Amino acid sequence: MKEVKNSKSLNINTKEIASLVSRTARNSYGVVAIASKDEVDLISKITKKGKMEEGVFVTKRSDNTFAVSIYLVLAQEIKITEALRECQKSIKFVLEKKYPKMCREVNVYVIELR
Q1: Can you tell me the distance from the alpha carbon of 26 to that of 28, in angstroms, rounded to the nearest whole number?
Q2: In this predicted model, what pLDDT tens digit does every residue of 71-80 receive, in sequence order?
Q3: Residue 108: phi, psi to the nearest 5?
Q4: 3-class state of residue 10 by DSSP
């Protein structure tokens, strides 16, 4: 019997995922910007977390899943924990809708307050 594989699992496009994550984060409450590549460059050298687009890292895993880390600039006058939680929920929701059961984790970090 021939095994049929999910077509989405074969084509995880990191640029497409990073773009989707970036758009979703920008629409979240309290997010001023996504960290630039220069701001996150030191972090990427230390952690080597996969391919980076803007301030978004997408790490593919061997089991056809992926993890996302995003570095944000937030507004100063907000409750940081709430803004991060809501941003993380939004990103996870959008990724689960587009890539069901493929996104293992969504990590959201603050790199600066403005």
Answers
A1: 5
A2: 999 999 999 9
A3: -120, 125
A4: helix
Question: DSSP character for 77?
Answer: T
| Mean predicted confidence (pLDDT) in 53-62 | 86
- Label residue 111 exposed, middle or buried (CB < 10 Å: 0-12, 13-18, 19+): middle
> What's the whole-model pTM score?
0.80
Are the beta carbons of 70 and 23 closer than 8 angstroms? Answer: no
Distance CA 76, CA 114 (A): 5
The most distant pair of C-alpha atoms in the chain lies apart, rounded to whole Å, by 60
Q: Residue 21: which residues within 8 A CB-CB, separation 6 or more?
A: 56, 58, 68, 70, 91, 94, 95, 106
CA distance 15 to 21: 10
Q: Which residues contact 63 (CB under 8 A, 6 or more apart)?
A: none
User: The tokens of 19 are what?
Assistant: 């773009």
Average model confidence (pLDDT) across the chain? 83
Amino acid at 108: V
Residue at 106: amino acid letter: V
What per-residue confidence (pLDDT) applies to 72? 94
